Amino acid sequence: MKPLPSAIGLAVPGMPDGSPGMDGPVYGGRRERYDVLLRKNGSTAVFASHA
Ligand SMILES: [Cu+2]
Fold it and tell me: Which of 5, 11, 20, 26 has its CA 20 to 30 A from that of 42?
């Protein structure tokens, strides 16, 4: 895991299937790829990608 940078926060827009809280049997085990976005100093960057 990467060291944590200073940031306002992390976000995952859109509640993609397979992300935390959108996983498990009720979702039929479906998984989508998604990015975790990091917001800092007025800009947004991809912090992590999950396939
Ligand atoms: Cu959700």
Answer: 20
Q: How many CB atoms lie within 10 A of CB 41?
A: 7
Determine the distance separating the centroid of ligand 1 and the alpha carbon of 40, expressed in angstroms. Answer: 24
Tokens describing residue 46 = 């991809």
The per-residue pLDDT for range 13-28, each reduced to its tens digit, is 999 999 999 999 999 9
Rounded to whole angstroms, the Cα distance separating 33 from 49 reads: 7
Q: What is the whole-number distance in angstroms between the Cα of residue 8 and the centre of ligand 1?
A: 22
User: For the whole model, what pTM was predicted?
Assistant: 0.78
Task: Locate 49 and state its tokens.
Answer: 């990608």
Q: 36 - beta bridge partners?
A: 48
